[in-house]
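Tutorial, part two.
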Amino acid sequence: MASCNKEITQRNMQFGALNPDKIDTSAGKWEPVLLSSATEFACDLPIAVTSPDYKLQLLEIKSRQAHMTDADEAALKYWSAGTVLRWNEILRELVAKYNLPPYQNPDGTYPIPSSANPLAYPYFPFANPPYAARAYAYVSAAQYDALVTAYHYKGSYRRLRPSAVDNTIKELVPVVKDFAYPSEEAVVAGATFGMMSLLFPGEQDYLQEKLNECIDMRILAGANVRSEVEAGVKLGKAVAAKFVGRARTDRAEKAVGTPADWTKLESDAIARGETPWISQESPKRPPMLPLFGRTIGFLMDTTEVINNRPPAPPSTGSAEFAKELDEVLWYSQNASREHMRIVHFWGDGAGTYTPPGHWNAIACEDFANLRFSEVRWARNLALLNMAMFDAAICCWDAKYAYFNPRPSQVNNKIKTLTGLPNFPAYTSGHSTFSGAAATILGHIFPGRAADYMSMADEASKSRLYGAIHYRSDIETGMNMGKMVGTKAVNRAKTDGAD
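Running the prediction step on this input gives:
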């Protein structure tokens, strides 16, 4: 699998250089997600600006600037848009690259990707929507905690930026006029590298290349000397290691389940008198991550997930179910041009960055216009992605608690207008992700709250228009997503950043 081309064309957005209108110097006091405090990891005392080593590092900046290439200028422009933004794009691209279900074996069984052998087929990971939601959450939360730590030490050490020490240093990008040690951009890069090396183990060489490019651009820009970026990378990796430790024990690795688990889900549904979900692929593919509902999220514990599980969907033998099934049939046979546009716009199937990635792209476009600082970027994306990670857990808990069949399984006259996911119907993942995303984004950016909820409603209805979900799937999913999103809002109100 070739490394991704980093020519950023996602949603055709072009981003200018990040120039925050607020520095957020108090961010060192904001509440981290996982760290006990901003001082949990030490950051070495910086060398004196009068030392020979520091003066040599200033000369390195001047030498780099005197020998800039066209490639340097392009990379400088790319990273100047914001480190959190660019790493989020890189993560989305890796999700899309790995969002491919494995092809079946000759005997009709399906192989399972293994983190122990990520470069052997099937490649690890299969970055399906739950895996992607978890990845976005861990990376964003690690970036945020690393930046809270960095801001604490920036305020403690109060190291002036290079141009304030030597006025012959040129700043080739907007540089925040506060303190330079440790480099916040390098902290983000170190945290991201540490976390993404776990999530995408086959991409470590590529990730190292992007890490080197990111920190080199801070030196070339005249924003940091080498010791400042080295301290940042070291601190970011230390923070990432704590998140990696949590990820190894959050039960996600067991979400695939076993053949015995898959059989029991079907037999339990039959015992309840319901029609069980059955894979419509040939040969039948095992259900996607049936135990993901037991994964430990960031905003809700397992007991809360179970206690907030929605009521059962209409029984497959009920008149209400028959009515909802007829509605799906009508949409499958009467697709308007507008409905088709909506179905395809929100499709986010295999080979894409998934519904959570779609909401990350939307958020990044809007955040770019708001001129957030790097730490506020990270905090806001952490809130968004923790909400969607926990939404995925709640949604998958409900899907496999009820094991409800897809409409086209029950009525073969129903022809879907988009890809048919390989897991039960109730509740809709798109709806749950979107309800959560719109709720927290509406808090972050109140002026757009109604727009976000309108987008979430459209994303949710796209699954009914596409004939792959019943109305109860999308309505209950939206409500569940809003419930999870509200938990993210409650955290935002108390983390010190508002």
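Residues 1-12 have pLDDT under 50 and may be disordered. In part three we will examine how such features are distributed along the chain.
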